[in-house]
Amino acid sequence: MNQEYDKGKNRRSLDGDSSSSRVNPGRPHYMTVGSGSTSESAARLQAILDNDLGYGGSMTRDGINGSAPAWNPALTEDRLTPSMSPIPSSLSQSELADNDRRAQANAIHQLWYNSHRVALGRSINRAVETLKSLQQMNASWPATYPSVQGAQASQNKSDPRPGLIHTSTGLSNKRRSLPPSPRPGSIRRSQTSIGEDSTSESSKSTEERTVPEPRLISPQIAQEFSILKLDLKLGALHQTELVHSLEKNSIASLLDGKISTSINHLYSLRERIEDTSSKVLVTGDLNAGKSTFCNALLRRKVLPEDQQPCTNIFCEVLDARENGGMEEVHAVHKDSAYNRHDESTYDVFTLRDLEKLVVDNDTYNQCKIYLEDVRSIDESLLNNGVVDISIIDAPGLNSDTTKTTAVFARQEEIDVVVFIVSAANHFTQTAKEFIWAAAAEKAYIFMVVNGYDNIRDKERCQKMILEQVHALSPRTFKESSDLIHFVSSNAIPTAPPPPPPGGNGSGSSSGGGGKGGEDSDGSNPKGKGKDREKIRDFEVLEQSLRRFVLEKRARSKLAPAKTYLLNVLSDVQSLATVNQEVAQSELNRVSEELKALEPILEASKKAKSEVSDDIDRTIEATCKDIYDQIRSNITTSIVQVADEEFLGVPYPGLMSVFQYAEDVKEAMLLDIQASVNACEEFARIKTVSGVSTIKQLGLLHLGDEYTDLSFRSDIMFRRKRDILAKQVGIETEIWDFFDMSTILQRQEKMAGAGMALTVATAVGGRMVGGFGWVDGALGAVKIVGNNNIRTLIIPGTIAVAMVATYYVLSQIPNSLPQRLATKISSQLTEMDYVHTNSSRISAEVRKVLRMPADHLRVGLQRSVEQLGSKREETLKIRGESEVARKYFGNLVNESAKIYNTVEAIDLEGSAPGVAAAYDS
Ligand SMILES: Nc1nc2c(ncn2[C@@H]2O[C@H](COP(=O)(O)OP(=O)(O)OP(=O)(O)O)[C@@H](O)[C@H]2O)c(=O)[nH]1
């Protein structure tokens, strides 16, 4: 923030030539009064001044760690008495002593003034540092901007004045008193309040809960931001509604812009207090008589006056000595920064050309009018012997928006505002707005109620105007006798306009003007009673203005810086207080959130690993169970398939025995297939129950975050149907019909059943069954006898064979299924049918169960990650809030400290030395 300033800048020439005046550019330049040599005490004071150029031991080191920015030594170059002040060579002893006394008094005053200026300069530096740090903080932690409560604001809609008052919190008891106009009483946080901030809010549940109205809304801290007030004039929306409709970051960026503007303004204020000259802006409504007033002050008709609006550009009147004693007009080119030493930035004209220049402003944006004021230093404002003054005549406020804006902007670089108000029209809305804007740094405004001669009921006019001033600028009102004047500027005798170009100008004008100069009509107004009164009123005004600008220079020159500093620091303090509390509640909130979050995160992590293992175990157990169950079921089904009573296939008789075999075979395979289907159904049921178990786990651990997968058990096992019939290919053989083992088994069963067994059956059975038929034959021979046997043997054999054949054939429905079952069973064993199907079904169940299981695992993982990142985010917010709380806590203290330092700079009391200097 250190800024090096051009040491020569703003330093005026004391002898008409700025270069020759620089006797010692690094120290104050005071003229030698009296006999040409200063008295001892004056010399001592001079020495003190030399050593006290803003760094001296007399200053309290309250700067920023003693590292105050570079201070321009030229700032103390105010003249106490101009070198060209006429000092008669033959002064009496008493007059010399008087001069000496005055010089001493001036020196004392200068010391006092310098100390205040330096203190203010340091405070400006500290304020700039503070604002810069606030800007940085605002970038990383968007500051909360309190706004006026909508309801409150609308209650006060009748109040035309924008903004609110500062109430009694923090510094407010020390703040400036403001008009008693009703102001909205409370503020409330903008949409950036806790709970409303979507960016910083890290928990859904927190977002959803109802946030209690922050304490910040309390009317106790209701106050207006005068400097850092966001200017939101968009459409028909009220400022509050706008603030609430804006994003927190948008507000932060608007605030950032305001801070930047304020920093720049502080720089310009520092420059202004360093500048030894004083700029007086004469402004007011259109046609209020600004130019007439300026002319009256100068006692010369320099600026064009007209009944219709005529001043279109700024006209700055300066002492001709600043221009080498030449009276001329420098018309500054548009978009050029004026530099008197660079003629490319302006065109030179004579005073006579002024009228045209002022009205026609297409080429120029302002005029610098160098004028010789021949009045004595006791009377002249320009040539006052104390300080360089420039008087700026501004275009009428309500002439057009651009010019009005320009006047508003211009007042930021001036020290004193002289506001001309028409006695007939009073304060217009634009006038009021200007005064409110000026109040940001100017607690006092010099008010000139002009055209007073036009008013019949003067008392009523005064009363009304004073009432208005009371509301507009209370401090000005408080000192109304000094700061508010009712005059008629056109009644002041002025020297006629300058002679035509060709003459040197200064000589002729000084001849025409001067003290008690004639009016343009040539009459002597001092002779007329009414005019005398007007002139007297004007002279009183002049004295007050001189006192305000010259004697109370600390007030006129330094007070704007002080007022602005107090206002901006107060704004900073309010902002800091609000944000400290916001940061604190944010900190509390996130700490609470963290406290709640930690165990949830831990539980979630634990659940994740436990549930994962659990699911795996459950799936494996389910699948194994299913496998075992299915294996046993299919095996049983295969084993039992032959026992099924012909599986519902009727025996068609011997003629269709092959078809019978095919039907039995198919029935058997279908029966086995049916058992497999039953197993699939069983597995389906088990899967549905498994999926439901996983879902329960998901709901238990993820709650609402668990998303269910749609599961259709009916589409399981679709592809494996009918596979068996295709795979099993069994040929029916002749031996399949005569399965002896089955026949024998059956015979034994039947034998065990009782005596119904016939011999034929027994014999046949034996015969058919094996070699036992020989024994049977021998037994029969013994009974029948050998001869008989011989005759019976053939037919007997035939009979037995027939019986046996019949028996065997009758046993086909019994023996064929057994035989086929055995063959199917062995083929299925060969195919590993039981295992294949059991593992196929259990594998599909595993696959199906894994889907929701994996989904649950992913959900759990995501939940842990989300909780983890929420924790990270919350930790980050906690860290930031902690930093912000500390920062804003410090800012509250720091801004209060600077505020107190600034407030302690007493610019109001009578300046030491002044009385003595101007006494006599
Ligand atoms: N009766 C009366 N007329 C005045 C007074 N002061 C100014 N006038 C007249 O008011 C008219 C406007 O005066 P100006 O000085 O041109 O007003 P202005 O405010 O400079 O006008 P703009 O710069 O164009 O806004 C002129 O005709 C003046 O003679 C006054 O005190 N009494």
Main features:
920 residues; nine-stranded mixed beta sheet; hydrolase; alpha/beta; rod-shaped; GTP binding; Rossmann fold; Dynamin_N; 25 helices; mitochondrion; coiled coil; binds guanosine-5'-triphosphate
Give your account of this protein's structure.
One of its GO terms (cellular component) is mitochondrial outer membrane. Residues 503-515 have a biased composition (Gly residues). It is found in: Mitochondrion outer membrane. Its main location: mitochondrion. The structure is a single chain. By secondary structure, the protein is of the alpha/beta class. The protein folds into 3 domains: 1-141, no CATH class; 277-551, Rossmann fold (3-Layer(aba) Sandwich); 600-866. 54% of the residues lie in helices and 6% in strands. It has 25 helices and 11 strands. The chain has helices at residues 40-51, 93-140, 150-155, 204-208, 239-245, 248-274, 290-298, 354-359, 401-410, 429-438, 458-472, 474-478, 480-483, 506-512, 529-551, 553-640, 657-702, 723-727, 740-753, 759-769, 772-784, 786-810, 812-831, 833-904, 914-918, and strands at 146-148, 187-189, 278-284, 314-319, 328-333, 346-349, 364-371, 389-393, 416-422, 446-450, 484-486. The protein has a 9-stranded mixed sheet, sandwiched between helices. It binds guanosine-5'-triphosphate. The site of guanosine-5'-triphosphate has 21 residues, from helix 7.
| Count of folded domains | 3
Low-confidence stretches: 1-39, 45-88, 148-223, 502-527, 752-772, 915-920
Mean pLDDT reading = 72
| CATH level-4 homologous superfamily of the largest domain | P-loop containing nucleotide triphosphate hydrolases
How much strand?
5-15%
What CATH architecture of the largest domain do you see?
3-Layer(aba) Sandwich
Structural class: alpha/beta
- Order of strands across the main sheet: 6-5-7-4-8-3-9-10-11
Biggest sheet statistics:
9 strands, mixed
CATH topology of the largest domain: Rossmann fold
Number of helices: 25
Radius of gyration: 56 Å
Q: What is the C-level CATH assignment of the largest domain?
A: Alpha Beta
What gross morphology would you assign? Answer: rod-shaped
Query: Cofactors and ligands present?
Result: guanosine-5'-triphosphate
